[in-house]
Amino acid sequence: MGQRPLALMRERLSTDDGRELYAQRKKTAEPVYGQIKHNRRIDRFMRRGRAAAQSEWRSVAATHDLLKLHSRWIANTA
C-alpha cells in the first residue's frame, strides 16, 4: 500500500520547501479565524442545523471581507 499519510506528510514537511510552505500558513487562512473568533467575538453559531450554520458562516465571512475592504478604502483616502 505505501506509507501512511502522516508519515508521508512529515517527510514532505521535513524538506526546505516543505518548511517554507508550512511557514506560509500563518499568513493565509488562520488569521481570518482568529480575527472572527477573538476580535469579533463570534465563536459559535446561533442557528441550528447544517444549512443554517453554513449560511450564518457565509454571512460572517462576507462581513469580514467587507470590513477589510472598508478599512483599506479608508486608509487609501486618508
In short:
With 78 residues, this protein is mostly helical.
Which terms summarize this structure?
single chain; 78 residues; mainly alpha; 4 helices; flat
Structure, described:
The structure is a single chain. The protein has two domains: 1-43; 46-78. The chain has 78 residues and is mainly alpha-helical. The protein has helices spanning 5-13, 16-23, 30-39, 50-77.
Looking at how many chains there are and whether they match, the oligomeric state comes to single chain
Strand content: under 5%
Number of domains: 2
Unreliable stretches covering 5 or more consecutive residues: none
Structural category is mainly alpha
Distance between the termini: 60 Å
Biggest sheet character: none
Residues in helix, % = over 70%
Overall average pLDDT: 88
Order of helices and strands: HHHH
How is this fold's topology laid out?
Blueprint: H1 5-13, H2 16-23, H3 30-39, H4 50-77
